[in-house]
Amino acid sequence: MAEDNLSAVLYAVDDLRLEQVPIPKPGPKQVLVRVHTVGICGSDVHYWTHGAIGPFVVKEPMIVGHETSGVVSEVGSEVKHLKVGDRIAMEPGLPCKLCEHCKTGRYNLCPEMRFFATPPVHGTLSRYVVHDADFCFKLPDNLSFEDGALIEPLSVAIHSCRRGNVQMGHRVLVLGAGPIGVLNLLTAKAVGAGKVIITDLDDGRLALAKKLGADATINVRGKSLDAVKEEIINALDGQQPQVCIECTGAQPSIETAITTTKSGGIIVLVGLGADRVEIPIIESATREVDIRGIFRYVNCYPTAIELLSSGKLDLSGLTRAHYKLEETLEAFKRTQKADVIKVFIHC
């Protein structure tokens, strides 16, 4: 086996280095993966620029990256469902598998969760990584390695739509047309939403969202909350959305969701902003507008793979940029520009 295991290692704010690390050995229930494609997430860039996300602080060198596909290079002695040469997508979180959350099917809430590129756990922007085999999923022949990397953010959208109980014919408002917002738009459409409206501050993002199937787009820049609410309701033929999926974390956007959602509807908070936000909570309470959070995703990878392989959901319209592992710093800077939906690094 080659000894090259070039990896992107974050030491501190603005200190991202490419260096060799030892190739790991898989345990009995693990596989060694030759990484092919890693998508760059906003969280990767945030660690690079700020050194922390909430309580997760980079205190020692950490390999970045968690949206990953690759090829099985070696299998542990107890692995039965995978073999060398299998193309896979890697679900990046490893729960304890023993606690109440894990045993009741909500392993994303496991207090012992170890998640790629969340300090102090190393990520996957390397030539080789090991991972538990039961969190590696075979890719059908009709899915590319880029599709495999996109399954991770797509799973966020699937979990968001599940938490919002999006159903056939529902009117859905997505707030924020960044990568996660656009994936929520596509997922809501795939599961049968009747109309999906999306808002943002950027006309370019909204134009792409319209091209990808949004029934209406609204640029909220410089507009009052009342004006935005009126525009949303007009776009829905005088009706309010039953589900709002908030992907910005911005206070005005959260307030728009609360005041605009139909009584008895659901708001899903996907975007993360300030720790404390002032919102009209009484309006939510008295109109029985449920506010629900999401934390990553749970049991979504098989669904994502099925949606993509069956053609029910098509990601080919997402704008992309491509870099080599040796160009990691340039790829991170390109992600900051936000001129494409997803930047990929090919390892």
Please give a structural write-up.
It contains ten helices and 20 strands. It is α/β, with parallel strands linked by helices and 347 residues long. It has two domains: 163 residues, Quinone Oxidoreductase, Chain A, domain 1 (Alpha-Beta Complex), CATH 3.90.180.10; 138 residues, 3-Layer(aba) Sandwich (Rossmann fold), CATH 3.40.50.720. Strands 3, 7, 8, 11, 12, 19 and 20 form a seven-stranded mixed beta sheet that branches. The chain has a six-stranded parallel beta sheet with strand order 15-14-13-16-17-18, with helices on both faces. Strands 2-1-6 form a three-stranded antiparallel beta sheet, with helices on one face. α7 links the parallel β16 and β17. α3 crosses α4, α3 crosses α9 and α6 crosses α7. It is globular, with a radius of gyration of 20 Å. InterPro entries: ADH-like_C, ADH-like_N, ADH_Zn_CS, ER, GroES-like_sf, NAD(P)-bd_dom_sf, SDH-like. This is Sorbitol dehydrogenase. Belongs to the zinc-containing alcohol dehydrogenase family. Keywords: Metal-binding, NAD, Oxidoreductase, Zinc.
